[in-house]
Amino acid sequence: MERTAFVAILNRTNFFLKCITALYCLLLTSCGFLWTTSKATLSSTPPGSTTPTLVQGAVPVAAVYSNAPNWMDYVINSGGNGQIWNRCAAACPGSLPYVGTACVGTELGYFGCVHGGELRYFAVTGQSSCTGLVATDALGAFDWACDSSTGTVLFISKHLKDGVGLRDLITTAPSLGFLANQVTVRKSGVAVFQTPSSVWWTNTFATLVGGNATASTLAANTIYATAVDLTTNGYLVTKSDKVAIVTLGTSTITYNNDQSAWCKSDGTYSGVGAGYESTLICLGGTVGVPSRFLWIEARLNGNGVLGTNSGNVLLFADYVYMSRVHRTEVWGGVPFGANDQSVVRLPFTHSKSNLLTNVWAHDSQLFLISVVGSTYTTVMNSVASNSPGSGGFQLKAANSVLYRDIASNNAESGFNIQPAAQQSLVGVTAISNGAQSITMAGVGANSTSFIALGSYNNQGGGTNNPIDVENNSNTFNNFATIGTVGNNGPDFSGSTNNIRDLLSSYNDYTLSMGGNNNIVTGTLWTGQLAIGGANSCQNSGGAGNSLPGGNTDCTPAVGYTVVTGVDPKNSFVGLPTTDSSNTTAGFTSPLAYASITDFVHFANLYRGWGLDSSSTIFAIGNTGQCAAGTCQLYDYTLAASDVVMRNKFGVWANNGTCPALTNSVTASNVVTDAAGRKYLAYAVEVMDPWLNPGGNFDGLCESNEVCVFTPNIGSYQGSGDISTTTPCTMAGANGVVNVTIYAYPTN
Fold first, then answer.
1. Separation of alpha carbons 384 and 552, rounded Å
2. Hey, which bits of 175-242 come out as E strands?
């Protein structure tokens, strides 16, 4: 009896334990965990799934072009099937690497060649498509694109990332040379492939040496670098190719010339008088024997004291072809002697097809960035600020482009444009300059095209104008000029200029005309606090102007629409108090001018120092340069809440449908400038050869190009990576056809 009872109890206990065990297993399984018999641990792997295997590649990253393997190598940007990574000398073979046609340096524009140094590739093992794959390199230096069109999954480096330069690829340990790099490919965030760590280029290196009594001549085919501060009597590159000058980290090259050595356009450092300039870095050649394929990435200090030990030109480039100045900062140049009438710190004369990107020029007595007498030169994303004795940018160079540049807090004009054929200014901004935002002087026709211009709180040169156009045949598309109370508005004293879509506010006059046949189309937005009378226009010129004669209320004679009552004082981000990108110690705004050490580095290209005269962005006393007392940081990006300047030319749907004003079937959406160039009025060219391999890179949105939509009034058109938006294609007519259009993802 007792045994029977015991067995029954035992059976009930076993049943209970089995139930508990089953319930426990059920709970574990439902939460995605399995109890293993081999290890007393919990596994996070769901049933029926496996962790992807990381494949270690055996082949290092290699050059896309076998005949352009090193940093300063280039191939011609033509041929292939429309991508910059398959520009083959003949029909492209079935697999990389390809053989391109080597550039000779006379190609039209820097983007007429492909920089082979930035183009690397590798094949991914174990993957059949690009779906879900993302590549990053260990140095964080490059943007990568995936391509599987050949049947093999490839990654190709598109170009250097924003904010990265050659200096970020160089090491001094154990000796001067390139850092090793490797790429990891991830799928849905999990690493699936990795290249071997390797050095990707084999350029020759040399240490840059200071303390030289005379200018040092640098050898061809060499990257010169320094990781320490140097004082020098100058460096000379003459009739030499593939020379780089790089300062690492924050190291600086300072000029210490007693004015006995002068750089001349033939690339020599001898003699004095006409044609010679006291120079820190002298780059040159002669007709038929230029210096080509140079790379300058340096911090250059001219020493900034008039007379002994100072330099007036920090980087002189004459007869220099197909070269790059990148992430370079220059300051401290001063006038000296009789050769300064057109001398600036970055003069490019008699040169061709050079590209300046992220150049910061400041604290100089001269024009800061100048392109004069050269052709096919492009300046992009650069800043010219705080010149106490002169202006920002100077341009007199055929087929040349200023793109998304900013001039701020200079004593004279932000942009000085002289007559030359087929110049373009696209998305440029002028802030708090002591004279005009743009002055255009000189005899003759300019045929300069402007798109998306912003002029804010510039002084206007006393009784002059914020935009002063004294020559002929220029085209202005979409520009805002705001905040020159006490001075006139934009003035066209030249003739046959075309003005389209102008917002003029807080100026004496909305618009003035002194020449003949100046035509306004589109919309004229007004509503300023104007001393000359609200909504006041002035025509003191001859026949054919859009404005009626005399002082008027801007009523059109023909061809445009007037919108009154517009007030943009709340359109902008305005008056920020902090900026983490600025290096001024203890940065805050407002701040005493004497305490500011950084006039060029800000969170975006629409910021700059100006006068601290009011808590309102546009008011009497806010205009002009801040050169003493207390300064205020201004931010002219458009506020997200703005309804005055944002989306006035359409709203981007991001669904593959082009905005109406980008359709060239409507003839009024096409502009024809004095040079005969036909382009869209409400888009600009994408200056990225990866996205726009067939472009001519003049900044204008023309046939068969890739462009970006410009929905806003003024220079700010949005931010972010345009390649993340869904492009649309416009078949078109009226001389502009087959255009692909993107937009900035944030507006």
1. 37
2. 177-178, 183-187, 190-194, 204-207, 216-217, 222-226, 230-232, 235-238
CA distances from 558 to 329, 472, 495, 519, 521 (A): 48, 21, 17, 9, 9
Helix (H) or strand (E) holding 683: strand 683-685
413 near 438, Cβ under 8 Å? Answer: yes
Residue 730: CB atoms within 10 Å: 22
| pLDDT 10s digits, 38-49 | 222 233 344 455
Element (H, E) at 11: helix 2-30
Q: How many CB atoms lie within 10 A of CB 641?
A: 8
Token duo for residue 481: 């000029």
Main-chain dihedrals φ then ψ at residue 345, nearest 5 degrees: -80, -20
Neighbour-count burial for 97-131, b at 16+ CB within 10 Å, e otherwise: bbbbbbbebebebbbbbbbbbbbbbbbbeebeebe
pLDDT band at 529 (very low <50, low <70, confident <90, very high): very low
Residue 167 has pLDDT above 50, yes or no: yes
Output phi, psi for 126, to 5 deg: 90, 5
On the question of a cis peptide bond just before residue 548, with omega within 30 degrees of 0, the verdict is no
Tens-digit pLDDT profile for residues 93-102: 888 999 999 9
Q: What is the pLDDT of residue 268?
A: 62
Non-local (6+) Cβ contacts of 659 within 8 A are 649, 650, 651, 652, 653, 682, 709, 711, 741
Residue 550: which of 500, 501, 509 has the closest Cα? 509
Kindly list the distances between the CA atom of residue 225 and the CA atoms of 169, 176, 207, 397, 458, in Å, as whole numbers in the listed order: 12, 8, 5, 31, 40
Q: Cα–Cα distance between 543 and 285 in angstroms, integer?
A: 49
Residue 621: CB atoms within 10 A of its CB come to: 12
Question: 273 — alpha (psi -120 to 50), left (phi > 0) or beta?
Answer: left
Among 613, 643, 644, which residue's Cα sits nearest to residue 629?
613
Q: Is the pLDDT of residue 229 over 60?
A: yes
- How crowded is the C-beta side of 51, counted as CA atoms within 13 Å? 8
Give the model confidence (pLDDT) of 3-30 as tens digits: 344 334 334 444 443 443 443 333 333 3
- Exposure letters 37-49 (e unless 16+ CB within 10 A, then b): eeeeeeeeeeeee
Q: Identify the pLDDT of residue 280.
A: 86
Q: Which of 61-65, 210-214, 695-699 has the lowest mean pLDDT?
A: 210-214
Token pair belonging to 2: 């007792």
Residues 290 and 256: beta-carbon distance below 8 Å: no
- Both tokens of residue 679? 């382009």
SS3 396: strand
CA 188 to chain centre: 31
Please give the torsion angle defined by the CA atoms of residues 673, 678, 681 and 686, in that order, rounded to the nearest 10 degrees: -110
CA distance 472 to 542: 14
Calpha distance 463→435 (Å, rounded) = 10
Q: Please state the φ and ψ torsions of residue 644, each to the nearest 5 degrees.
A: -90, -40
Greatest C-alpha distance within the chain: 129
Mean pLDDT of 53-58: 92
Nearest CA to 124 out of 58, 214, 33 is that of: 58
The tokens describing 162, both together, are: 């924003």
Q: What is the H or E stretch that residue 5 is in?
A: helix 2-30
